[in-house]
Design a protein that fits this description.
DUF34/NIF3_sf, NGG1p interacting factor NIF3, 19% helix, alpha+beta, N-reg_PII/ATP_PRibTrfase_C, Alpha-Beta Plaits, 103 residues, 4-stranded antiparallel β-sheet
């Protein structure tokens, strides 16, 4: 099992979650579409050569984003990450994938 965490602007929260869930991620026992989400504020500065979805190159930007965490089995993790990247508006979405020990 893996824990998959990604950060997404509020405007695309549901679309990105639905894309990830459609791959089979977010299942726990007899439940699906399981996740935890927390609203916060992200910051970034787009550098030369970037094509930012929000803001301007060279300017520090802050944006309301959600941190979304869910579990995913090994069979679906690669397709879940790929789906998140396709549905996400950012050129370089922030995410992590952590292998979990299950007892």
């Amino acid at each position: 099992m893996y824990k998959f965490t990604f950060f997404v602007p509020e405007s695309h929260l549901e679309a990105v979650k639905q894309a990830v869930f459609a791959t089979g991620a977010g299942k726990i026992g007899h439940y699906d579409r399981c996740c935890f989400q927390l609203k916060g504020e992200g910051q970034f500065r787009a550098l030369e050569g970037s094509h930012p979805f929000l803001g301007e190159r060279g300017q520090l930007e802050t944006v309301v984003e959600y941190r979304v965490e869910l579990v995913c089995d090994e069979q679906h993790i690669r397709s879940a990450v790929a789906a998140m990247k396709l549905a996400h508006p950012y050129e370089e979405p922030a995410y992590d994938v952590i292998r979990m020990e299950c007892f």
